UniProtKB/TrEMBL annotation:
GO terms for molecular function: transferase activity. This is CaiB/BaiF CoA transferase family protein. Keywords: Transferase. It comes from Halobium palmae. Pfam families: CoA_transf_3 (PF02515). PANTHER family: BLL6097 PROTEIN (PTHR48207:SF4), SUCCINATE--HYDROXYMETHYLGLUTARATE COA-TRANSFERASE (PTHR48207). It comes from the Archaea.
């Protein structure tokens, strides 16, 4: 089958999570992604997670950079800049996520690139946008969660603001990047016109909360977090996680009467309207949980699922990967890496009958494709050796 993005070349100047995940998605739909890194490698190559590297490789880097080729360049050198311009000249997409004007200072901004590639799709994804009062401030997922209000709606009532435990803004930003690259490419296919695409993490953080912000801005009500851990600030009981005799289950949006019947509950507060289920949610949760604590998890799940109650077990990752549905969907897979060996990761999460995504290769070693890409640009082996000696590039696979 011909990949959907076969023939599309992406010059990828991104780093960290948001940009690299976006370009990984494009790569696995068939795009040729050339990851252009500084000579010492992008930051996540050396970022320890839980204080650990994986056989000398950054675990976070390994998560977000498969199916790409790596080229190292000193973009501040004349020759490094010239090679980068040769790469972007034939690229369909240029994508970067530096602070505003960094690419301009390197002579690789939108105006510079369109001089040699006028129909390019040029994507800039900054923290706050290209201009404005915060444009030069640092931005990162946790910072964006915080300024957007996200931690204020998580956790229990009385707790400090509680951020999401994963980089949800980066991940949502990555999806926005990939989506708008595709939209711009579709526009170019129709009109022949490239364009500049500006995205930013602050807007991604706010867009992520479209429902919650709408509720807060339009409903004349003061919403409080649940003291007993109802999982969503804007919903009533039973929505949340419940302790069992040997674990936990999640009970989603269900009529409380269903739980009363199945579990033979007696609830001493009103719950027969959505308003009452919200106002009395903490007491309702306490009374439901007093009953679920008497059940073994497997027995409770079997009983509730038989009555079509929306319920699931709360799993650890080690249990999740062995779930029969997870195995059936083949969403967890193994990839062979030249230094790490076999590593377990998450497969592309979609099935397509004509253009399925594919993991083409493991995350690249630093500068692994330097000589290969230079050869495609017309450089010979001796020129590559000279560029390495002069520090314009690094030796393929070097960790220095």
């Amino acid at each position: 089958m011909t990949p959907a993005l076969e023939g599309i070349t992406v010059a990828d100047f991104t780093q960290l999570k948001q940009g690299p995940l976006a370009t990984q998605k494009l790569a696995e739909m068939g795009a040729e992604v050339i990851k252009i890194e500084p000579v010492h490698g992008e930051y996540q190559r050396g970022l320890r997670m839980g204080g650990e590297l994986l056989e000398g490789e950054g675990p976070s880097f390994l998560s977000f950079n498969r199916s790409k080729r790596s080229v190292t360049l000193d973009l501040k050198s004349d020759e490094g800049h010239n090679i980068a311009m040769e790469i972007v000249e034939s690229a369909d997409v240029v994508i970067e996520n530096f602070r505003p004007h960094v690419m301009d200072s390197l002579g690789l901004g939108y105006e510079d690139v369109t001089e040699v590639n006028p129909d390019v799709v040029y994507v800039s994804s900054s923290s706050y946008g290209p201009d404005g009062p915060r444009a030069d401030e640092p931005g990162q997922d946790l910072l964006m969660q915080s300024m957007s209000g996200l931690p204020s709606i998580g956790g229990r009532g009385g707790d400090p603001p509680t951020p999401a435990p994963i980089s949800v803004v980066d991940l949502h930003g990555a999806m926005l990047n990939a989506f708008h690259v595709m939209t711009a490419l579709f526009h170019r296919e129709q009109t022949g016109e490239g364009q500049k695409v500006d995205l930013n993490l602050m807007d991604a953080a706010i867009d992520l909360q479209i429902e919650e912000i709408f509720l807060q801005m339009n409903l004349d009500k003061e919403f409080e977090r649940s003291e007993e851990g109802i999982a969503y600030k804007y919903l009533g009981a039973p929505y949340g996680i419940y302790e069992t005799a040997d674990g936990h289950v999640t009970i989603s949006m269900n009529p409380i009467d269903d739980l009363v019947d199945v579990l033979d509950l007696t609830i001493d507060v009103e719950y027969d309207s959505s308003e009452a289920a919200y106002e009395n949610r903490d007491q309702i949760k306490r009374e439901i949980e007093a009953q679920t604590r008497e059940w073994q998890t497997d027995e409770l799940l079997e009983t509730l699922l038989a009555e079509d109650v929306w319920v699931s077990e709360v799993k650890e990752y080690e249990d999740m990967v062995e779930d029969p549905q997870v195995e059936h969907n083949e969403i967890i897979c193994d990839v062979e890496h030249p230094t790490v060996g076999e590593m377990t990761t998450v497969a592309p999460p979609v099935s397509m009958s004509k253009t399925p995504p594919e993991i083409k290769s493991a995350p690249p070693l630093l500068g692994e494709h330097n000589e290969e890409v230079l050869s495609e640009l017309g450089y010979d082996a001796s020129e590559y050796e000279r560029l390495v000696e002069e520090g314009v590039m690094t030796e393929a696979g070097s960790t220095e």
